[in-house]
Amino acid sequence: MSNTTQDKPELSQQPQQQKPPVLEEDDEFEDFPVEDWDQEEAEKASGAANDNAHLWEESWDDDDAAEDFSKQLQEELKKVEASS
Amino acid sequence: MATPGTSVLDRFLSSIAELVRQRDGAKLQDFLQLEPPLSDIYQQMVVELRQRYPAESPQKDAELHRRCESLVPRSKGSSSWIAFPTFMKLYFTFLRDVNVENLLETYNLLKGLLNQCVLALGDSQMGVVVLPTVLYLCKVLAKLAMGLDRRPDLIAHLLRLEGRSDQDESVEKVTLVEKSANVVREAFIKCLTDRSGTPGVQGKPEGRRVGIYLMANLCLKLLFQCGKLRNAEQMFASISAQSPPLTYFPASQRVTYLYYLGRYLFSNSLFYPAQIALQAAYDQCHRQALQQKRVVLTYLIPCNIIMGRFPSGLLLQRPEAQGLAEKFVPICQLIARGDYIAFREHLAFDSPANEWFARKGILLALRNRCEILVWRSLTRKVFIHGGFLGDPAAQRSPPPYLYLKKLETAVRWLQSRHVQSSLGAISFIPPSRALDAKAGENTAGSQIIYKAPDPDFADAHDPDTNGTDRIVSSKYDDYLAPDAYFDALGQLQENPAHTLTDGDPSADYSQHELDPYADRAALNSEDEAQGKPTPMMREIESILASLLTQGLMRGYLTHGNPRFAIPGARMRGAIPTGFPNVWQTIYARESEDDNVPGWVKPPKPAAAPVGAGGGGRVVNLSGARPVGAQ
């Protein structure tokens, strides 16, 4: 905090909010600048198709047998099987 | 007294009186400025207040109060709004006396002012007029409290003067933030309990009820800041019981509330309802509100990961998700890979990734809830590469199965792999961190994860001592073999040789069921363990049992010659049957109840006709006589 604002920290919050729109570590959920908006202006507009499905991957099982980890695991299991 | 109408104060008072008459709450709030820098006209009023009503004079104080009493319309029959003049007088004395050099005093004055305003809010007729003022004061108080929370050095010297330093840890400290939350909660309750109009779920936001979520959101913000989430529980319960549906409130209030509600549910491990609330917050958020969308995603993403749904590339490429991919993608990759040691190290206490997750309050949830998914992935891979996948050609063949010995092999391989990499000079993992990798060498406890030995029991597993020697050398030797003891006759007996005072375990107790050295049998049992499953196998079995119980794997375990078998796999194949989709499994189980506690929805039109043909019928019973009436 700079020297000019040191004596009244509670007031220095105001100018801070006008920082450039860089998305960095901001833990706090800021107040919205507007009170209300239509569904049309929302992230998921009412008319839009249900596109939430594309936001999430349900099938993520890693079946790539050529991938390093799987390959080494496979070799290890074979090795132990052969020795026993 | 100066002639009315000439001074700023007089004009101010008559304006306030007019605004109260008109019930213009918004404008009233606009008039009641108190945050510096005050405009010239307010500073002029402060000068007048100090001249005409100096702080030192009780008579003048009383006179100021009388002037404020005239602000409230006096109607015969109804009680006048006495809390308001007291509030106005406090407002003037605040302006007159406040010294922003002393922020603690400023805080206390402001809190007193807000308290009085909340009392004024409680009036059933006039209360709603001060609602915007209450909100304004709540915000100023919250801002000050949170500012001081971040810069405790600004008031540390003042707290010391009051004798409330940090030294006294016997009493739980109530921080300024928590105190503020308590005042805001009072305002919230006043809003929620407005009885005018139709209250409850059937009601609309009218009267003081328009402030329910404004106050709730501010209170939640403060409670999250001071880490007293538990105090929010009653608030959510009251909202569920008494609030009109959330959907009738403005979008900013809805989104903010759903965000806090989602985080509250998340921190209570109610991930499914948390996911619904947070997804709704994200969906209803203004498209351009990147900061808010990003904060919502910070919780929505881990919530989904825990339930087996990973963020897609599409989501992570959105502008509000900037930087989130590098946090969450490694976790998703580690879950899918099945390397439990790498996963645990990624989120370990001393890992570099840990700090961000800890600050967001999602570290423990991710660590505790996702590890089981890692085990599912590992078991799945071992099954694919080392299991019997069934013989579709055979008429009769055993169901697909996996010898758990192979999983044990895989775990030991993982451990050796990490030991090697931790010894390698180019490794990013400092040697001290490959602890889980060495768990296979643990003499006691888990063979899979490392836990520091409990010093109280450390001796018991020292392989160099055994039997009687071990008992004597344990840390209980002062009890078992003391310097002196009282014998059966109550005589003090010296025991310089430190023999066991209760007798020799083998000689004196081999015939008895009651053995004061209860641990003894277990201590000597290592040699009997030959041929039995290893402790690691026992652990693997319990991990798989946990996966089966949660439905994340399907099949059964056999205990002798430990196996995981997957019956009924002929149709769909062994892998999809034995390792069903995580999200679909959890969704199928959880979506039976889509109710989100704390989120009030409009009542379902229960009286509406059900079905096309029959239709519902309303039977009017108003004229019916009670049963048994003559």
UniProtKB/TrEMBL annotation, chain A:
SMART domains for the chain: DSS1_SEM1
Q: Which PANTHER family does this chain map to?
A: 26 PROTEASOME COMPLEX SUBUNIT DSS1 (PTHR16771), 26S PROTEASOME COMPLEX SUBUNIT SEM1 (PTHR16771:SF0)
Q: What is this protein called?
A: 26S proteasome complex subunit SEM1
Task: Kindly name one Pfam family recorded for this protein.
Answer: DSS1_SEM1
> What is the role of the protein in this entry?
Component of the 26S proteasome, a multiprotein complex involved in the ATP-dependent degradation of ubiquitinated proteins.
Where is the region Disordered? 1-66
Signal peptide span: none
One Gene Ontology cellular component term attached to this UniProt record is: proteasome regulatory particle, lid subcomplex
Q: Where is the composition biased (Acidic residues)?
A: 23-41
Q: Name one GO biological process term.
A: proteasome assembly
- Family the entry assigns: Belongs to the DSS1/SEM1 family.
* Broad class of the protein's primary localization: nucleus
Q: InterPro entries in the record, alphabetically?
A: DSS1_SEM1
Subcellular localization, per the record?
Nucleus
UniProtKB/TrEMBL annotation, chain B:
Which GO MF terms are attached to this record? double-stranded DNA binding; RNA binding
* Annotated stretches, region: Disordered: 593-630
InterPro entries to which the protein is assigned, alphabetical: Csn12-like
Where in this chain does the entry annotate a coiled-coil region?
none
Report the transmembrane regions from the record: none
Annotated protein name in UniProt: PCI domain-containing protein
